Amino acid sequence: MTEFSFQTEINASPEKIWEMYANVTNRFKWEFDLEQISLEGEFVTGSSGQIKLGGQPEMTFTLTSVIPHKEFWDRTVVPDAGIAVCFGHTLTKNGDKTLIKHIAKMEKMDGELSEEDIMLLSQIFQDTPQAILAIKKVVEAE
């Protein structure tokens, strides 16, 4: 299994940060290449939605695990690529601060991950530190 992760501390509670996720329209504040996002139903395990990032086709994502104020995972199947990208988002209370961490993993439908697959995952992940720092900036300014 190959994964990438980035974490930092934010001067805010997990409950305050959680709103950046649970209200999917807040994603425009931290996902800079986001063109469109929608969620069918509540922000709970099993819900699905649509996401469109710049230069990419519209894709369906599924919330595979949601533990309010602690973590959630989503899974997006990349059309015609035979892969799925899974992102984890965790919040760990640390005194008056919260450790925020995003994790990216790739699943291949057939066979082993290749070097090209790993490089694709690194490209997908490359703006994650910028996204987390944007969350930090927005949440700490409120």
UniProtKB/TrEMBL annotation:
Gene3D superfamilies: 3.30.530.20. It comes from the Bacteria. This is Polyketide cyclase / dehydrase and lipid transport.
